[in-house]
Amino acid sequence: MSWDASNVVKLERYHLGNWIAMNTWSLNHYQPADWVGKNNGNASYPTVFRVSCSPGKKVSIFEGNWFETGAPGTSDMATSVSSDNGTSAGKNFLVYMAPPGNEQNVLNPFTGQKFNQRISHIYLYAKKLSIVNVKDAYTNGNKINRTYTIQPERYADCFLTEQEWKSIYNGTGTIAGGPERPYLSVTSNEDISVMNSNFNDNWMMYFGSALPQNINQTSNSNKNNAVPGDTVVFKSNITFNGTTAIANPTIEVAVTSGAQVNSAKLVDVQNTDTLTGTISQNINKTKISFEGEPTLISGNQYFVETKLLVVPVNNQNTNINNTIVSVETMVTGMVGNDIQQSVISDGLTINNLISPDVTPPIINAPPGFTINPNAAACTATLNLGIPVTSDNVAVIYTTNNAPISFSLGVTTITWTAYDAAGNFATAIQTVNVIAPVMVSPVVSSLSICSGNSTTLNATASQGTLEWYTASSGGTLLYTGTNFQTPILNNSITYYVSNDINGCKSSRAPLPLIVKETPALPVVNQPTICSGNNTILNAVVPSGNVEWYSSSNQLIGTSPNFNTPTLSLTTTYFVKKHSKWVCRTYCNS
């Protein structure tokens, strides 16, 4: 929708390096125009679009899907609306009212009652006491004309019912019904922000502040189109909407790839002061920052000047003809107690139809390194140095594929240098991280009887021993040289590794054999007369038998034991044992 009379508006889309014209309109004040894919061969273009209008004039744009081809109750949207000066805070707005959504169960917070119908909203947010007038744009208020008095830090809900919405949209709510489009004109005596929404159940949105914008920018350049080798100067003028100074300002410029920044400066015209920007570059863009900017005084004139050299490469590839280089200038600072920011973006079209330079640059990588790991780590970090480069025109930038940290062993790094024509050359640098001398733990296998616990031992001349039940992975059981096992009934293998400053050795296995404890022997318990002896017999299925006196002295080692002559009742003890590896015994 046009803000001005006799406004020529063009819509274009970007395709394979060119802007393709889609439509042109000549619009008068508050006159709308539409481009709807369904009405244009059901077209859908996965690209970016450009809208331009007559110099010095303004147009408001609303983009969405389904609104013009669907029906009330079938879409959800919400967005902050731009004012006539391009900011979220302003005094004049043109607001598109989307088809009302189903809000039968939505509570109106101002009345405490449900809407019980389809509704489309504009929410009006005030920083100060504001008088706001809302009118339908097409008839300038003949159908909708409302006035809201909004207290500071409060808002108002200007909503339309489905019947009211249709009344400002050809009476039918469709394009086919006539020339009307559902726009509302919003004017305020103070800066406000505006949000429109037709929510049914869920939505997300971009939102803007109602805070008045004290910082603005206007920009110009000596060229809108350029070829590689051209020098283009962009100038952004910083302006003030008030008398308050901008304290602690931060000024930055970002330039996308496709152009090389030769210089950037901040100029105070009144005091003839110049501050030179610091340029930093990566593969995607160049950033210019200004350190120590003074307070920007309202009434003084300031501008940021950025000088570019156009190059035929973009992100390591040759620029497609008509590639756009973006130059974005951002001014941030304190206005009173508020942080405010102004951002302005300019575009430069590159015409790349020239004979390219085909000679690659020369690059020599920094010398290689052989280093130890960092303390308490098994990796290393270091400064790789700077390669030495040269070219018959200019080297634009260099890159490398180095990791953030280097693992043990040799890592090969490839350095690449790119010149202004997109030619490149590579060089190799190596980093060798020496592993510490790993001392594997010394372990030996053991045997125990079932139902018992034991202490396992491992030794190493340095490092910390770690115990596991898996050869890799698993859960750490214990840290130290002596590990007390739980009660065991089955054989198991433990694993021990050595940790030296975060570098771990391979795990040494420690088998623990668990043998079944034999059953008690079956013995006869005879009764004899005093002065006699007898033969005691122990029955065991296998293994050996040992006989002991009451004083625990070994007195026999066969199943049958011939007692001496006895005059008193006497108790003997018999034990069965099984003999196996390393002369270890399990006793009943």
Notes on the protein architecture:
The structure is a single chain. By secondary structure, the chain is mostly beta strands. The chain has 5 domains: 7-116 and 155-188, no CATH class; 215-350, ntegrin, alpha v. Chain A, domain 3 (Immunoglobulin-like, Sandwich), CATH 2.60.40.1510; 362-433, Sandwich (Immunoglobulin-like), CATH 2.60.40; 446-515, Immunoglobulin-like (Sandwich); 522-587. The chain has 1 helix and 45 strands. The strands form 11 sheets. Strands 4, 5, 6, 7, 8, 9, 10 and 11 form an 8-stranded antiparallel beta sheet that branches. Strands 13-24-23-15-19-18 form a 6-stranded mixed beta sheet, with no helix packed on it. Strands 31, 33, 34, 36, 37 and 38 form a 6-stranded mixed beta sheet that branches. Strand 8 (130-136) and strand 9 form a beta hairpin. The longest helix is centred in the N-terminal third of the chain and has 6 residues, at 162-167. The relative contact order is 0.07. Mean pLDDT is 85; it is low at 580-585.
